[in-house]
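Fold this sequence, please.
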Amino acid sequence: VTFADYARRWWQSDDGRTARGIRQGTLRDYRRSLGLDEDGQPNGGGAVAYFGRMPLAAIRPQDVKGYVAQVAARGVARNTVRLAVAPVKALLATAHEEGLIRANPAAGLRLGRTVSASPVKEVPALTEEEIVRVLAEVPEAHRLLAELLAQTGLRISEALALTKADVDFGRRRL
């Protein structure tokens, strides 16, 4: 089984590696990182373009590191490199679980110097004045959520996942 063929099949059937499953947004990001279009066909980029017709069983840890190095060579941020390799690691882990490969070449992969050489994307925080202006533009129905995000620094996915059990009313903490 080649990497490209398995990537198409894996992306369409993957349900995640945890009990919670995998979010649709994550699957969409995985598909893009792998280099597949909306129909699961190769689009000429991503991991499918790199590994191509290489049989899964022939992929070695050096090959995965080579892919990481290629992504990092584009001058992208460290997190972008990690996000690009995440679906490759998950795909290879599943292939190993299914018995398609004897060992997972991405297991225990340390990105090390390759990723540390990538730039850290510095994103300045909004000033108080900018936050006030942004909040003024948010519709009333969403303002409480926007204020929560602004005051706590939570990501939208973290805020939306909050439940009553996450609130400590006694200490006024999330």
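Residues 59 and 78 are 23 Å apart (CA to CA). Residues 78-97 form the longest helix (20 residues).
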